[in-house]
Specification:
511 residues; alpha+beta; four-stranded antiparallel β-sheet
Length: 511
């Protein structure tokens, strides 16, 4: 009997011990952890209204909340605004804000801070990168009450809500902007789940959890961005566990990484395309026939299949199929004989020298693609002077009104997922990123009409006409639509990107 009782007692102790151990390990599992993300470069600025690059936007999605945002399926959902209404004429949008949200400097998120943020970006004198994104359609911002703000629009603007959901719509602390001035991009204050802990340029950017976040508590203790330019080095970091996530994954490493059970590779659709800007102001490319010729000269299928291992598709329009308003204008087939014929008709002599520029390492396989295009163009009679650049210098050189390039490799991610932003900044005469320097009044009129039309069906018809015109004018060598490739450790859940290439890290769980 004593032995039986002793056995029961021992069993009870073991059960209690097991429960205690289980609770302890479960508790440890739920403790916030640290996440390391390796990108091809580092953020440029953490001022959301002055940001034009993807990595800065990825960072700003951690720091700043917006009026509205996107869910995992790219649908618009509330964030700082709990509800909104649009007037019957489509020219006024009113947002009711949630109460109790605070910036990480302790000041309240209210209608005044929303007005201050947008007044700042639509003021042309501030010369912020995203001026045209908002100033084109916002006429006036009104503080209706402490927690209600309304926007008077210049015209009914179909993509208004998704433009407010853009990362560039992050609401900033007015107090911090006034204190930091032009340095606000290095010392940001938002109301998001994370805040900047440390930024060592060229080495790391560390975010720490915001303990006072109004929403769901941050999943990670810290998130660190590391700039790693060398493609293979990022892959090795992922394999060894030095990095939890890498973006992008170089095509040559995808199969190897997929065979590693500690690693996962996600390949998702993207709204980013790659194209070769043609300087339409310089002979011989001031002739559309010559621009069409170089489109026939380039073997896009081989670029997609061989250089990118199928992680892209040949472009058949100036915007990709993920973008609202897309329709196929038809791809230029690879036809070098047709290219030679058109060049002869245009009076372009064999041996004509042209200058081809490319960034090196900014976009997936950009240098390799540019070198392949160089060979294609030489095969139809051009002498191609090839030059690769560091991206910052490349951007500055291609934006110069007196730029000497004939062809420059560029990429555009339509971050609102709407044809307006897919065309207006890069193909309108006055577009800030119109590197081809195309000036076509008919195209300008179509893009302006598409921006201001109220009917979705009417807008789609307008953009279909615009895309056909762009194909005929051929201001670019139309190349490909990228797919997004993200590598991550198998112990992570909820790693995803929006189709505009924002890598959303707020929801990542580390087991």
């Amino acid at each position: 009997m004593k032995r039986a009782l002793l056995g029961i007692a021992l069993s009870a102790v073991l059960v209690l011990s097991a429960c205690s151990s289980s609770q302890s390990s479960s508790g440890a599992a739920n403790e916030p952890k640290d996440l390391v993300v390796a990108f091809g470069s580092e953020p440029v600025t953490l001022d959301p209204q002055d940001t034009s690059d993807g990595i800065s936007n990825n960072a700003n999605e951690l720091i700043f909340d917006k009026l509205v945002t996107l869910d995992k399926n790219n649908a618009i959902v509330p964030q700082l605004a709990k509800e909104w209404t649009t007037s019957p004429d489509g020219k006024k949008i009113t947002f009711k804000l949630r109460e109790g949200a605070k910036f990480t400097d302790g000041t309240p998120v209210n209608a005044e801070s929303v007005k201050y943020t947008f007044d700042r970006v639509i003021n042309k004198d501030n010369k912020l990168n995203r001026y045209s994104l908002y100033a084109e359609f916002i006429d006036k911002v009104n503080v209706d009450s402490e927690y209600q703000v309304s926007f008077d629009l210049k015209f009914p603007f179909g993509p208004a809500l998704i433009t407010f959901a853009h990362t560039n719509g992050g609401i900033q602390s007015p107090k911090n902007i006034k204190e930091k001035g032009k340095d606000v991009g290095k010392s940001p204050v938002g109301s998001g789940p994370y805040k900047v802990k440390e930024w060592v340029p060229g080495n790391k950017l560390v975010f720490e959890a915001n303990p006072d976040y109004w929403g769901e508590k941050p999943k990670m203790r810290t998130i660190t961005f590391k700039p790693v330019a060398e493609n293979s080095a990022r892959s090795v970091m992922l394999e060894t566990g030095e990095a939890d996530i890498i973006v992008p994954v170089v095509t040559t490493d995808v199969d190897r990484l997929k065979s590693n059970d500690k690693v996962k590779v996600s390949v998702e659709p993207s709204s980013r395309n790659l194209y070769m800007s043609i300087n339409t102001t310089k002979a011989p490319f001031d002739n559309p026939k010559v621009r069409q010729a170089v489109n026939y000269a380039v073997d896009k299928e081989t670029i997609v299949k061989k250089i990118l291992s199928g992680q892209a598709k040949v472009s058949d329009a100036a915007i990709g199929e993920m973008v609202w308003g897309y329709s196929s204008a038809g791809a230029y087939p690879y036809d070098p004989e047709k290219a030679k014929q058109l060049l002869a008709e245009a009076g372009v002599k064999p041996g004509t020298t042209i200058k081809l520029w490319t960034p090196d390492g900014r976009y997936l396989m950009d240098r390799q693609i540019a070198e392949f295009i160089q060979g294609n163009l030489q095969a139809v009679g051009f002498k191609v002077e090839y030059r690769k650049w560091e991206f910052g210098a490349f951007q500055e050189a291609t934006r110069d009104p007196k730029a000497e390039f004939d062809l420059a490799l560029n990429s555009w991610g339509t971050s609102t997922n709407d044809a307006d932003w897919g065309l207006r900044p890069i193909l309108m005469t006055k577009g800030a990123s119109n590197y081809s320097k195309l000036a076509d009044p008919q195209l300008d009129a179509l893009i302006d009409k598409g921006m201001k039309a109220a009917s979705p069906d009417e807008r789609k018809k307008i953009y279909s006409d615009a895309l056909k015109l762009v194909k005929d004018q051929a201001p670019w060598i139309f190349l490909l639509d990228y797919k997004q490739t993200t590598g991550y450790r198998s112990n992570l859940d909820n790693v995803y990107s929006w189709s505009n290439e924002r890598l959303i890290l707020r929801d990542v769980v580390k087991k």
